[in-house]
Structure to design on (396 residues):
């Protein structure tokens, strides 16, 4: 979506022929002389620009740097990836409430999978069974079950990784402590007498040299993300892709002294323990980006299929109840109507608060986001209120 709708983020050039890191930093400094570079993200996708987290007067934006030409192509306050990441990660609801609301559904998803397979007898014989010609309800019920059966491996994957994220956030068995070690500090003696400042600007770093030292420390490493130091006692943090498949960039880490460029600590994915390995393959497996655009597309459609089961399940259940209870008028929503709207109101309040206060998005961006939610709500209202009322009325 970022590639489709944000033209400045598209990376074009001689693929694999990377521009010098120092060239990109020089161009960044030239375009934003008063800004600082908080983080430098090199995306896994060859068709996307590097994303540099820029901070200027307390405001953050995302700068797009072409990794092949070194050119700064533009910036944005918010990207599609960032919006949907926050939405999926914690529903924009702070204080850990949003995080755990999302993570609890990992357990519910696994429970729904187990109960579905237990109560759907001899399901393994129905992998190619689709009933047609027996009415819409029978067809959609059959389609619902068929999509559910073919989604079993991915439902299991999403639920297990979701439960793992829950264990990481709650630090069960020390998973978070083991998988997210603290950054080391520079311990060599540094004198700050005679006006020598401890502070360090991001542009003081020789990024070409830092990348070369990191790739020398881990043979076969292709340096990716960089976290510049804030001071001479802070380290240069570099992660990247190595020779171990499936793991994310963070599995390979090199911490460098910002004055000598000597490695202080090295984490090679080939030497990490089981807990850290599982933690570093969870994201690529959960989001499906481990195989590039191909696996992204596969994960997208299968994830869409699983999501459709929720809607089709609600529809089939509601229509069945309406058909079975012809003599009674049933409330479509009941008390859940008020609970749902209450939860949604909290979500929307914090969503707009974060978008305005943290991301400082433009009025046009807020308008687009609002229009998207209005379309979504209008469609849901039509399907699950207006249409269901008609079904109930016709069943009585």
């Amino acid at each position: 979506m970022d590639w489709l709708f944000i033209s400045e983020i598209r990376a074009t050039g001689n693929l694999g022929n990377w521009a010098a890191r120092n060239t990109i930093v020089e161009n960044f400094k030239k375009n934003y002389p008063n800004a600082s570079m908080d983080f430098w993200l090199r995306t896994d996708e060859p068709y996307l620009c590097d994303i540099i987290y820029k901070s200027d007067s307390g405001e953050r934006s995302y700068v797009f740097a072409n990794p092949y030409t070194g050119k700064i192509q533009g910036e944005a306050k918010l990207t599609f990836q960032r919006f949907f990441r926050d939405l999926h990660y914690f529903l924009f609801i702070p204080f850990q409430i949003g995080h755990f609301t999302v993570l609890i559904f990992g357990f519910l998803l696994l429970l729904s999978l187990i109960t579905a397979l237990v109560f759907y007898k001899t399901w393994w014989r129905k992998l190619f069974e689709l009933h047609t010609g027996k009415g819409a309800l029978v067809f959609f019920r059959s389609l619902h079950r068929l999509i559910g059966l073919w989604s079993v491996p991915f439902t299991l994957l999403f639920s297990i990784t979701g439960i793992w994220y829950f264990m990481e956030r709650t630090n069960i068995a020390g998973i978070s402590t083991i998988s997210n070690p603290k950054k080391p500090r520079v311990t060599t003696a540094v004198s700050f007498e005679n006006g020598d400042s401890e502070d360090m600007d991001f542009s003081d770093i020789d990024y070409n040299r830092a990348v070369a030292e990191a790739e020398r420390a881990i043979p076969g490493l292709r340096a990716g993300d960089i976290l510049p130091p804030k001071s001479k006692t802070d380290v240069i943090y570099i992660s990247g892709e190595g020779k171990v498949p499936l793991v994310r960039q963070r599995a390979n880490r090199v911490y460098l002294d910002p004055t000598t460029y000597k490695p202080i600590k090295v984490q090679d994915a080939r030497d990490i323990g089981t807990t850290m390995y599982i933690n570093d393959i969870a994201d690529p497996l959960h989001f499906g980006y481990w195989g590039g655009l191909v696996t992204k597309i596969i994960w997208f459609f299968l994830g869409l299929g699983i999501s459709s089961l929720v809607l089709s399940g609600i529809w089939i259940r509601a229509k069945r109840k309406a058909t079975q209870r012809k003599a009674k008028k049933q409330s479509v929503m009941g008390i859940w109507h008020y609970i749902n709207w209450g939860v949604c109101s909290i979500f929307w309040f914090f969503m707009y608060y974060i978008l305005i206060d943290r991301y400082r998005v433009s009025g046009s961006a807020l308008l687009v986001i609002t229009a998207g939610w209005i379309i979504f709500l209008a469609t849901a209202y039509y399907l699950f209120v207006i249409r269901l009322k008609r079904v109930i009325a016709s069943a009585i």
Q: What stands out?
A: The first helix runs from residue 2 to 5. Confidence is low (pLDDT under 50) at residues 327-332.
